[in-house]
């Protein structure tokens, strides 16, 4: 009897996670939509920073004019999700820095590499008309295991883009950092991506 109950619980957790991964594609689409789906920019963090309304993510605003930082209105069944992004205000200059924290109902059993090369990769292959991965490497993020990917993609509306993404798994939290933009100008902003990855603070990642 206990075995049957444990099996039923495992199936329930699996179904919730499948719904989470299936929703990843929808979330990627939401990230590209207009700011009408976002909270207006507010100085709700320390000077030079932007914090999510729940305080779980704090980012450093990119320097210079022409940037806006927002917290998209997004919902995901089976998890609590917080997203912050800073992007260029000019629609013709597509470039977005993003930080996400998915809080699951149970610890994540897949590694960051498994997620990046599995569910997330399949989602991107559906989102873009073509995707070519050019890098996939295990890295350390604040002392934790993480996995970085880089890929070039073609999008019906946005054209030729380049994206770098880092995935970190910490207990029941799946954390994602990314930078993406027009392929022609992306490499010239690589320093912004590196600064975003190193300066973003997740409360779910306390210092080791």
Descriptive account of the structure:
With 208 residues, this protein is an alpha+beta fold. It has helices at 2-31, 112-117, 119-127, 183-186, 190-199, and strands at residues 49-51, 57-60, 67-70, 79-88, 95-104, 130-141, 144-155, 159-170, 173-182, 201-202. Strands 3-4-5-9-8-7-6 form a seven-stranded antiparallel β-sheet. A hairpin with a 6-residue loop joins strand 4 and strand 5 (95-104). Helix 1 (2-31) runs parallel beside helix 3 (119-127). The termini are far apart. Residues 29-43 have low confidence and may be disordered.
Quickly describe the structure:
With about 210 residues, the protein is α+β, with helices and mostly antiparallel strands. It has helices at about 1-30, 110-115, 120-125, 185, 190-200; strands at about 50, 55-60, 65-70, 80-90, 95-105, 130-140, 145-155, 160-170, 175-180, 200. Helix 1 (about 1-30) packs parallel to helix 3 (about 120-125).
What is this structure's SSE topology?
Layout: H1 2-31, E1 49-51, E2 57-60, E3 67-70, E4 79-88, E5 95-104, H2 112-117, H3 119-127, E6 130-141, E7 144-155, E8 159-170, E9 173-182, H4 183-186, H5 190-199, E10 201-202
Antiparallel strand pairs: 1-2, 2-10, 3-4, 4-5, 5-9, 6-7, 7-8, 8-9
Helix pairs in contact: 1-3
């Amino acid at each position: 009897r206990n075995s049957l109950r444990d099996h039923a619980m495992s199936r329930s957790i699996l179904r919730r996670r499948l719904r989470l991964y299936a929703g990843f594609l929808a979330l990627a689409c939401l990230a590209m939509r207009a700011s009408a789906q976002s909270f207006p920019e507010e100085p709700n963090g320390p000077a030079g920073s932007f914090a999510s309304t729940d305080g779980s993510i704090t980012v450093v605003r990119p320097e210079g004019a022409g940037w806006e930082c927002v917290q998209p209105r997004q919902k995901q069944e089976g998890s609590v999700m917080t997203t912050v992004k800073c992007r260029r205000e000019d629609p013709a200059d597509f470039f977005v820095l993003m930080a996400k924290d998915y809080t699951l109902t149970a610890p994540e059993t897949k590694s960051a590499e498994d997620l990046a090369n599995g569910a997330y990769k399949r989602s991107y292959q559906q989102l873009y008309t073509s995707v070519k991965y050019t890098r996939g490497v295990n890295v350390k993020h604040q002392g934790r295991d993480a996995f970085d990917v880089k890929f070039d993609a073609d999008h019906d509306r946005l054209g030729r883009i380049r994206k770098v993404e880092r995935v970190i798994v910490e207990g029941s939290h799946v954390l994602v950092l990314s930078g993406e933009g027009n392929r022609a100008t992306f490499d010239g902003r690589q320093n912004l991506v590196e600064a975003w990855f190193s300066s973003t603070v997740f409360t779910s990642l306390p210092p080791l």
